Amino acid sequence: MAEATEFDAIVVGSGMSGGMSAKELCERGLRVLVLERGPEIVPERDYSDQLAPWETRNFDSVSQDEIKRHYFRQYPGVPYALKESNKDFWVKDDEHPYEEAEGTRYEWLRGYHTAGRSIMWSRQTYRLGPQDFEENLREGVAVDWPVRYEDIAPWYEKVETFVGIAGSEEGLSQLPDSVFQPAFELTEAEKAFKRGVETAFPGRNVIPARVAHLTDATEEQRSLGRSNCQLRNRCHHGCVFRAYFSSLNATLPAAERTGNLTMVHNAIVRSLEYDPEGNRVSGVRVVDAQTGETRTYTSRIVFLNASAIASAMILLQSTSESFPNGLANRSDQVGRNLMDHVSGAGAAGIMRGFDDRKVFGRRPGGIYIPRYANVTENDKPYTRGFGYQGGASPLGHANGQIPGIGREFKESHRRPGPWRVSIGAFGEQLPNPDNRVTLHPTKRDRWGNPLAVFEVRYSRNEEIMLEEARTDAIAMLEAAGCEQITSSPVNLTNPGNRIHEMGSARMGRDPADSVLNGWCQAHDVPNLFITDGAFMTSSACQNPSLTYMAFSARAANHAADLLAEGIV
Amino acid sequence: MKTRRDFLRELIVSVGGVSALSTLTACGDAPVVVATVAGEPGRFYTAEEMALVSRLSELIIPRTETPGALDVNVPGYIDGLMADWASEETRIAHRQALAEIERRLSANGGFLALDEVEAEQVLAELDRSAFGEAADELGGYRTFKGYVTRSYFATEGGAREEQQWVAVPGRWDPDVLATDRQGV
How do residues B98-112 score in pLDDT, each as one tens digit? Predict the structure, then answer.
């Protein structure tokens, strides 16, 4: 089949940020090629959200031997999301190996297919606040962000209106309100927890989690076949109602209906070709995942949205006389400053007084406690901060782990039992140039591309912060009147485990110490843009997908302007 | 009047048909839960193990106004779990747990030969100690009880009729009276 190879723009990756880049570029009238390294996902065929419990076997669990053989890194990282009926959404570890520097661990948790991890994400959606763009400069950490909150605020608004976010207006400066659809109301136990915490700690707030679920779908959303959340909590399996946001549920269909989108699957980008005379990316070289053949696509601009790690690896693989250390890497910052969020501290307790209550529906989110450390409370032995995710729900009698047999035991499952409040911290990780991904000098994957080698360690700041987060969590549960409070010793999650990797091609003001300018445009190569997590100059502590999408939309429109003006 | 054992025997006979039908689901990749009969081997269980698991399951989750563990073929579910999901290590641990449970229950005569009242008494006693003074030695029993309970609620009868599970709730109500029998 003859296939077009020349486009106005090529977007590498179809996930959270690639989908938004493609949508915006297509809507600006550009002919866009999206390259996806994995196979096509067809919702009607590949989503498993409609299966009832009895339509799967073995509790929908992947067999223990298969986990050892194929999912030995993925499954321990996401046991809550990787099931027998959706296991194909996750890579097989034996087919996609990587290495870690001695004495370090990294969890690279991935899905290679249409829409990438936007299908499997947990949909927590928050803006960064003004402080997040200013603290590097104030503290002399890494480099200054070349943008401020005001630069990105209108793009947050544009993206949120399209995406659809359930949340409540709180007026918090550090966690600005989004454009919201109605929030999922807190449970009575959560309301009691909120009262207790906010009374005892005036600078802290307990709010409904902000999640990318439709609760009052707009006309635009309905026109894309999307409808309101049905409270099934089957989201890790896809959603035939298209109620939660993913590229496949929203941005890719929006791009497609412009008539400007070409999507090619099974196309693994090997390298970007560089034209030194024009100082531009002149082609995108791919290897076909199925046939192993290579081919080249060309375009006027290129957007890397392959994920922070893969985008850095593509640059490092793209060597030339002009760029012996990798394309757009004159700063030597490509692959460095790799960050994630850090968890592993939290607490839980029993909230009395609600044993006669239960809920109806399976809510896809819980509560959120926005960052207060070094915002409303400035007495901390660490810098930056963390937010907590959590919720209160009836303990129930899960898995039969209560005494008794017979009718009484059977029917005890009808009673919700006591309510349990649980919160866990998501902390900011400071950028450090020694935390990096590099290419293995000799080992290659089955497509001939170098293996990633990770070397990432937490700093003392993260360790101290999480110890304090545990102490704070216990104090808040106590203040709210919880009983039987339990809290495991702090055990930091491995880097990568939060699946928020970022920072590997950071933005900055100076080409000598950063890869991208404030428009996510490579300092060294003007027709190259990177709008996945790679651009993040610091990690903040909020779940980052919304920020990736806002910067993608902003960069795409800027790139379209530059094209229109003939500048790139 | 029928003894519980008579009742169980009839039930077990009826289970074969019911569970064979239950494998015919709308899903293309239908679960393979083989119909089981106490006293006949399964894909993993020996005939003796199947008899023990059948007896225990029905005592733990009996038929009431809603189906019991045998009505929905919990033994077949766990048999499939061991055959298809469990690693060799898990299988060995499960076999050992069943042997230990039977040994303890048969202190005053074979458990499977006990009448309904006696069987219920000795199992209730074992259950009490498994969540009390013998917690350390009876972890295998608690794991087994977990399999029974999870299996029961993973079946159509357990989920729909006892748990009132609803496929598409369609709305969120954060505050419902616990006595309300509307679904989860």
Answer: 999 999 999 888 999
Residue with tokens 């090619």: A264
Q: Which of B145, B146, B171 sits opposite A361 (nearest CB)?
A: B171
Residues of A within 8 A of B174 (CB-CB) are 184-188, 190, 359, 363
The Cβ of residue B60 has, within 10 Å, a number of other Cβ atoms equal to: 23
In angstroms, rounded to a whole number, what is the distance separating the alpha carbons of residues A234 and A362? 9
Q: Which pair of structure tokens corresponds to residue A469?
A: 């987060």
Distance, in Å, from the CA atom of A282 to the CA atom of A273, rounded to the nearest integer, reads 5
Arithmetic mean of pLDDT, A60-72: 98
3-state secondary structure of A453: strand
Closest residue to A405, CB basis, from B124, B132, B168: B124
Rounded to an integer, what distance in angstroms lies between the CA atom of residue A332 and that of residue A165? 38
Closest CB from A85, A403, A407 relative to B128? A403
Residues of A whose CB is below 8 A from B146: 399-401
> Can you point out the beta strands (E) in A105-232?
207-208
CA distance A41 to A32: 20
When pLDDT is cut at 50, 70 and 90, the band that residue B34 belongs to is: low
Determine whether the interchain pair A53/B168 forms a contact, defined as Cβ–Cβ distance below 8 Å: no
CA distances from B76 to A91, A141, A470, B149 (A): 32, 60, 44, 13
Contact criterion met (CB < 8 Å) for A54 and B146: no
Residues A237/A48, Cβ–Cβ less than 8 Å? yes
Find, in chain B, the residue whose alpha carbon is nearest to that of A54: B155
**A109: its two tokens:** 């948790």
pLDDT tens digit sequence for A256-303: 999 999 999 999 999 999 999 999 999 999 999 999 999 999 999 999
Whether this model's pTM surpasses 0.90: yes
Inter-chain touch A407–B120, beta carbons under 8 Å: no
Please check whether residue A533 is in contact with residue A117, taking contact to mean a CB–CB distance below 8 angstroms. no
- For B24, which residue in chain A has the nearest alpha carbon? A55
Question: Quick check: A106 and A98 in contact, CB under 8 A?
Answer: yes
Chains A and B form CB pairs within 8 A to the count of 161
